[in-house]
Design brief:
single chain; 331 residues; mainly beta; Neuraminidase; four-stranded antiparallel beta sheet; 25 strands; globular
Length: 331
């Protein structure tokens, strides 16, 4: 299973089994989810080599990209010089601003509150420290901790109604299985939603806050997209066990789900492209041949921001929803 947050010690044998060591996130994503931008050749790197190599000082590796509710800015986390921090910038790539700066803390997985005033994120202190969920003002001030469990908590996702935050955790999971949890936006009422014998990742809310889409893996390199009610009931497989499908999220109108997929038979780490499917599992189609390993639609549905590249360097691109107008907005 290819993913983007994995303990370095388990880099090759068990992807995502050791979730939340954020520096190792880049190691795994680089080996297993290469996605080349147009006219940019993929760099093939063995897991053992990349694990031993220190990235160049000027290398930047992006973890995710999150549109602000008004569509004017991106929040994202990025690694440089072995440190992960949360940043903001305008959607044209200008106005870069670093929000976190403690050299002892790894900060990643940003998610905007629906009013645009706050950002939820994950943080851990030290390479082997557990992760927890925090929120801060959109200017980086007033950081508050929401979870404080002995397990690893990460990947927060704020519900559109502002009432809840979904996240992933290995608390209570057999053999460190990762499951989806939900809590009130103030951190209270932390409740487990999934319980299958899989690792469940990347929860994303429907626009009406009634459903959550996510993907699950069971070690067969065929991650699949699922959708469930916001209380964890009525979980339904959307992608039918076909191909390798990751990082789903909803269109603003709730009529489709965008995700990245690698066809069956493709070499591991290559050939991820952007597709959509309807919430009932019908209407699967490819959006663009452009390779990407994470894609998010803008709040008005007119543009797609996505990540492409190979560890230790990747980039954020933006294009129109029909695949035209491709533009690289980060170095």
């Amino acid at each position: 299973m290819e993913n983007v947050i994995v303990m370095l010690v388990l880099l090759v044998s068990s992807a995502f089994a050791g979730v939340f060591n954020s520096e190792a996130l880049a190691q795994d994503c680089g080996q297993t989810q290469q996605a080349s931008a147009a006219a940019t050749p993929a760099v093939k790197t063995s897991p053992s080599a990349a694990a031993d190599e220190k990235p160049p000082a000027d290398a930047i590796f992006y973890r995710e990209v999150s549109w602000s509710p008004d569509g004017s800015r991106f929040a994202f986390s990025a690694m440089q010089n072995g440190k992960w921090n949360i940043y903001l910038m305008r959607t044209d790539g200008s106005g870069l601003r670093q929000l976190t700066s403690d050299p002892e803390v790894m900060n990643f997985s940003s998610s905007w509150s629906p009013d645009g005033k706050r950002i939820a994120f994950s943080a851990s202190r030290g390479e082997k420290a557990k992760g927890d969920i925090y929120v801060m003002n959109a200017d980086g001030s007033e950081i508050h901790q929401l979870t404080n469990d002995s397990a690893h908590d990460s990947a927060p996702a704020w519900s559109p109604d502002g009432k809840h935050i979904a996240f992933i955790s290995d608390r209570g999971g057999k053999d460190h299985e990762v499951h989806i949890f939900v809590m009130m936006a103030d951190g209270s009422g932390q409740t487990r939603l999934t319980s299958s014998e899989t690792h469940d990742y990347d929860p994303q809310w429907s626009p009406d806050s009634k459903r959550i889409v996510y993907y699950a893996e069971k070690g067969d390199r065929k991650d699949q997209i699922w959708v469930m009610n916001a209380d964890g009931s009525n979980a339904k497989l959307l992608t039918g066990g076909v191909a390798h499908n990751i990082f789903p999220s909803w269109s603003p109108d709730g009529k489709s789900i965008i995700f990245t997929t690698r066809p069956d038979g493709a070499a591991p780490g290559n050939d991820y492209h952007i597709s959509t499917i309807k919430p009932d599992g019908s209407g699967l189609k490819q959006v663009a041949a452009q390779q990407a390993f994470l894609a998010r639609l803008s709040p008005n549905g007119e543009r797609i921001a996505f990540l492409t590249g190979d560890y230790p360097r990747n980039a954020i691109f933006v294009m129109n929803a029909d695949g035209s107008g491709l533009r690289k907005i980060t170095p």
